[in-house]
Amino acid sequence: MFTLTVHGDDKIARIEPEIYGHFTEHIGGVFYDGIWVGEDSKVPNIRGLRLDLIEKMRQIHAPVIRWPGGCFAETYDWRDGIGPRENRPTRINWWRNADGRYEPNSVGTHEFVDFCRLVGAEPYIAANITSLTPLAIRDWMDYCNSPAGTTTLAKEREKNGAREPFGVKYWGVGNETWGGGGNMTGEMYAHEYRKYAVVMENADPKAQLICSGADHHDWHWANDVLRVIEPSSRIMSGLSLHFYCGSAGDPLAFTEEEWYRQLRQALDLERAIERNWGFVVGYGMEKHARLVVDEWGCWHPGGSGPSPRMKEYGIEPAPNNPEGVGNLFEQQSTMRDAMVAAATLNLFNNNAEKVKMATVAQLVNNLHCLFLAGGEHFITTPTYHVFDMMKDHMGGDALRISGGLGEIAREKFAVPNLSASASLKDGKLTVTLANLSVTGSADVKLDLSRLTEANEAEIITLTSSDPHAHNTYEDPERVKLARAKGAYTGIVTVPAFSTVTLRVNTVPEE
Ligand code: AHR
């Protein structure tokens, strides 16, 4: 039996809803056939955008969507994606050398913002500072955000169908600037940042600018960058961090040892958060800038998703994929990926004072995805269900939890037995418990300190008989949520490799 105390009077911080955000790039099948099917498609759509996907995104209250990359952003010119679709140019897509596909620009700023609005999410645009000038980015911001009828670009936006401004609040100043985004040193990027940021702030003083941050366990980047940015720090609202966990065997046929290796890697994100946050605080920037983990998730070898079997499924390849090659980076998502998602979201909840936004990579037909789609086929993955069951943490106050989480030692991959987080919103307590053990079920006694619980609870469970379980076009609901209402006894049983979210009405104790 594990005993955990949820401290009702020890608030960490508000859990920003944006921590439960998403990332979408023009890569493989994310847009073309994933999100965008085109207005003439027989797949149900709203103005070309896949209807089923929009509805599922609404269900999880998706708060923010990052676009257009990723590396794709490095050579993206926003002007290619506006105006009548039939006149838009076809360009070399950043990923062309990997999958032979070109960029038709059928999805541009209007379509992306339309997608966000239909979903109810805020758009987060990653600006290309690798191959566009500060002036070109200023113009993009002008096009998006200037009031109707003011500038020439606001009038062009209106001519293209959007009189009212898009009101894009979040702007990334480059992407992975240590890699594809300019191959810079931290210091070089910091000088570029200062130049772009001052122009971008001038274009829209309300914009929140996100500084391109470190990869994974790079402990130097944030220091090198913030040292130079600090004197102009008022124009930085967030420091990004990218954290993928890979190299843990086959996405579907992993071993027990690889299960723990994957989880160990995922949990190490906490060290990366602490380290990067240390620099933000060290340079005195924490009042206006928090961390933005704008790419995270499992990165398995590609090829395990359904797209290599397009012909068999009768799926017409997207127009920019005439050869019908499988979607780049597309991978299946099993109970293991769901567990990584639950443990990561718990970790963000528990670090709510440090992390203000996070976008999982990537939404559909890609790395740690929530959906797999092709033609008329559309399914949710176990990872989607984690976002669904944990959505009530969004906007709640994260509460401190104490007690033993246990430890499972598998040679060098020691992981805690449990991952847990708790939050309080409108008098309702939400607790998420993930049992990271692949073999043993866990009984958890929850002590609520300074809170009195009502005697009824809603219990949402994601479980399966097999840690490798996943959904397919043939068996789309093999992994799904179970919801139950019952008496709250203070003891929760979490089956092996499963996640439970508990919702209880509470009243604070005097
Ligand atoms: O998500 C795939 C790629 O991973 C992104 O384009 C890039 O930013 C990262 O390296």
List descriptors.
510 residues; alpha/beta; TIM Barrel; Immunoglobulin-like; 2 domains; nine-stranded mixed β-sheet; eight-stranded parallel barrel; 11 helices; globular; binds alpha-L-arabinofuranose
The CATH superfamily name of the largest domain is Glycosidases
Count of all domains: 2
Oligomer: single chain
The CATH architecture of the largest domain: Alpha-Beta Barrel
Shape descriptor reads: globular
Q: What about the largest sheet?
A: 9 strands, mixed
As for the CATH topology of the largest domain, it is TIM Barrel
Q: Assign the CATH class of the largest domain.
A: Alpha Beta
Layout of secondary structure:
Elements: E1 2-14, E2 21-23, E3 45-46, E4 49-50, H1 51-59, E5 64-67, E6 91-92, H2 96-99, E7 102-103, H3 109-119, E8 122-127, H4 134-145, H5 152-159, E9 170-173, H6 186-203, E10 208-215, H7 221-229, E11 238-246, H8 256-267, H9 269-282, E12 290-299, H10 335-350, E13 355-361, E14 371-374, E15 377-380, H11 382-389, E16 397-403, E17 418-425, E18 428-435, E19 442-449, E20 451-462, E21 481-487, E22 491-494, E23 499-508
Parallel strand pairs: 1-19, 2-5, 2-13, 5-8, 8-9, 9-10, 10-11, 11-12, 12-13
Antiparallel strand pairs: 1-16, 3-4, 6-7, 14-15, 16-17, 17-18, 18-23, 19-22, 20-21, 20-23
Bound molecules: alpha-L-arabinofuranose (AHR).
Alpha-L-arabinofuranose (AHR) binds at residues 25, 69-71, 175-176, 295, 361-362, 367.
Kindly describe this structure.
The chain is α/β, with parallel strands linked by helices and 510 residues long. The protein has 2 domains: 16-393, Alpha-Beta Barrel (TIM Barrel), CATH 3.20.20; 397-505, Immunoglobulin-like (Sandwich), CATH 2.60.40. It has 11 helices and 23 strands. The protein has helices spanning 51-59, 96-99, 109-119, 134-145, 152-159, 186-203, 221-229, 256-267, 269-282, 335-350, 382-389; strands at 2-14, 21-23, 45-46, 49-50, 64-67, 91-92, 102-103, 122-127, 170-173, 208-215, 238-246, 290-299, 355-361, 371-374, 377-380, 397-403, 418-425, 428-435, 442-449, 451-462, 481-487, 491-494, 499-508. Strands 21-20-23-18-17-16-1-19-22 form a 9-stranded mixed beta sheet, covered by helices on one side. An 8-stranded parallel β-barrel has the order 2-5-8-9-10-11-12-13, surrounded by 6 helices. It has a two-stranded antiparallel sheet with strand order 3-4. A hairpin with a 2-residue loop joins strand 17 and strand 18. Helix 8 packs parallel to helix 10. The longest helix has 18 residues, at 186-203. It is globular. The two termini are 29 Å apart. The model has no long low-confidence stretch (mean pLDDT 95). The structure holds alpha-L-arabinofuranose (AHR). Alpha-L-arabinofuranose binds next to loops.
